[in-house]
Amino acid sequence: MSIADIIGKFAAVLYRLVLIAFPLVTIVFIWGLIKYIGFGAITGEETSAQQKTGGKRLMVFGIVTLFIMISIWGIIFMLSSTFGLTNIGIPGFRF
Fold this sequence. Notes:
Mean pLDDT: 78
Structural class: mainly alpha
Strand content: under 5%
Largest sheet: none
């Protein structure tokens, strides 16, 4: 088994994980934004400082996680092109 095969298998697993992780992290970010802005706009109640702090944390977590996932995918793409693997592309749904 060559290094190209190992990287190819790793990238195939990562591909599937990214398809699941990107939407989940985006939802976490949006949920943090809703918590930060507050449900007060929806329910008419005032948003507490604790809710805003939790919302900030979720938004930061979402942004950092998206950055890390995009960076890792860029490294995998760079390694795959270095070793001549042509079947690895940017994750996306195929219809």
